[in-house]
Design brief:
The chain is mainly beta. It has a single domain (3-107), classed as 2,3-Dihydroxybiphenyl 1,2-Dioxygenase, domain 1 (Roll). 9% of the residues lie in helices and 50% in strands.
């Protein structure tokens, strides 16, 4: 399996409005906003940033989403969850690196 760079940064926040304003002040433009306090921001042709609000009692996190093809990776890549449809129209797989970090691979067209 090979990947082709970074597709996106997935970022969790406790305040969608403040996070969106922060990225807009850095030059990102709001591509779309959902009705559940999340949205996608872009800045040029590079990776996009998807920001999702989580409840205050839940820790925030951040994940890099890699561009890839929908194939099963060879060892030593540990597949946490195989490719599956997401609620936002993509297909994603989660893998774990040797240090325990999880990475999302989003299938490209």
């Amino acid at each position: 399996m090979s990947t082709n760079g970074i597709e996106a940064v997935y970022l969790e926040t406790h305040n969608w409005g403040k996070a969106a304003q922060f990225f807009q002040a850095l030059g990102f433009e709001l591509d779309f906003e959902t009705d559940h306090n999340s949205g996608l921001l872009r800045n040029g042709d590079g990776p996009y940033v998807f920001v999702a609000e989580v409840p205050e009692d839940r820790p925030t996190g951040m994940k890099l989403v890699l561009k890839g093809k929908e194939v099963t990776p060879d060892a030593p890549v540990e597949v946490v969850s195989p490719f599956e449809d997401t609620h936002f129209g993509t297909r994603e797989m989660t893998v774990r690196d040797p240090d325990g970090r999880e990475w999302i691979v989003q299938a490209g067209s």
